[in-house]
Amino acid sequence: MSTASSSRGKRSAVVVVTSPSPVRKTGASLPQSGVASSLTPQKSDRLMATSMSEGSTTCSPSSKSQAAEAIQRVETWEQAEILTDDEAWDFRSQDKSETQGRNSMLPGDGRRSGIAMDMANKYANELLQRGKTALESAGNMKREFKLTAIQCLQSLYETCLALSDSRSRHMLSLERERSRHAREIVAIERAHSKKIAEVTKNLTSEVASARNDLTANLEQTKAIRSWLGYETLEPYKRIEDILKSTSEIKATVAKWNLSRDLPTKTLTEAELQPLKEQQTRLLQTVQTLSQQLDELRRGQHKTLENTTTLQTMSQEIQVRLSSREHSVPTEITTENPSSQHHLPQLKNDLQPITERLDAVSSELRTMRQLKERTPPPPAPSVRTEMALADIVRQIRQPTYAHVASKPSVPRPNHTLIISSTDPKNTGDNVIEKIRVALDCKKTGAKVEKVRKAKNQKVVISCGTREDMKLVQCQVQKKDDLKVEIAKASNPLLRIADVLSYH
């Protein structure tokens, strides 16, 4: 900081060292007008003209050269442009020539490598003092002209300081606005990240629940397949037995045909009767076996079709589980067999699975439609987030007043009345003896309430009967203490206006 004062001690100015960066903090205390405030514009012009005419004959060549040099420097000096766009304030993308700002009229002091001192205001103050000294050294100039010239120089200096101060305030306002926008952007990003985390958590839970449902359906399908394999094992064995019986019958019939073709003796009617009956029985057996074979073939065909349908359904469920969408098929239908006869038991067993799959499909379809129709919620503001955080913190941390305001839960009353055998002991002495006898840290006895009663007695309340018995046993070990369980008194009943009816 550089401080300069006039020779008369009537004006003072403070010049603060500024940085050549686009954001510079400059503070100046504007001097007062002083003596020049008492002069009118007409008097000032008249005094200036007289002083210039008189001073032109007395100024030395050195003072003239100094004045010309000062005028030339003031004319060539340019005010730095104020950067207002966001790109100009990005210091990382600017080179050294762009971040210098206003070129100083004097070089920096070199004490710091990263900051150059702006000496424009200091040099303006030096020019002011040199001008005042030159005016005061002129002996043949009138006092009024000198005051007018000094006032003009002082006004120029004040204008320079005011422009520097105004520019610094403008830059400070721009920086404040930029920081405010940055804070708002950070708040918006935090709210957005929080909302995305909530949505991701909800979607993860929904996908996990759908995956569990599909796993349960897969287990049920496997159980049905194993059950079908167990149920079809017995029909396969029966078919094998029927095939063996049929082969034996065919062999027997072939032998009988061969024996019939051979020349035999004539059989009587009595001998042929058993053969006819046996033939009739064989024909009935063959017909029955034929019908059973037909039914078994139809049942086998039906079972194969149902098994194929179940395998197709299981493959579809596995494909949908491995897909990215993790969605349940909207509708699962089973093909009706071409035959009119089917197994009702298999249909009854498959009905609950089909109904459950349909219910899951309808629920997923409804959830998908609601999700498409529901608009995205607006992002909450910073004030709303802070209010919600305060509410959650207050709910999670109940205060003492909140807990005390709740009514106490009625519980059974387990009370002991303890007194001392020595009539000289007071209630405080009895309480101290009870504390020594109980020793809650070692025995683990729990006492909820202790109060003093009349006649040096102490009433102790316990939460449970076990705690009461433990306290009673510990107190009975002391010879100078008596303990008894409080007995519930009979309830009192108040009947009003009894005598008025007699």
From TrEMBL:
<feature type="compositionally biased region" description="Basic and acidic residues">
    <location>
        <begin position="89"/>
        <end position="99"/>
    </location>
</feature>
<feature type="compositionally biased region" description="Low complexity">
    <location>
        <begin position="14"/>
        <end position="23"/>
    </location>
</feature>
<feature type="region of interest" description="Disordered">
    <location>
        <begin position="1"/>
        <end position="69"/>
    </location>
</feature>
<protein>
    <submittedName>
        <fullName>Uncharacterized protein LOC111361921</fullName>
    </submittedName>
</protein>
<feature type="compositionally biased region" description="Polar residues">
    <location>
        <begin position="50"/>
        <end position="66"/>
    </location>
</feature>
<feature type="compositionally biased region" description="Polar residues">
    <location>
        <begin position="29"/>
        <end position="42"/>
    </location>
</feature>
<feature type="region of interest" description="Disordered">
    <location>
        <begin position="88"/>
        <end position="114"/>
    </location>
</feature>
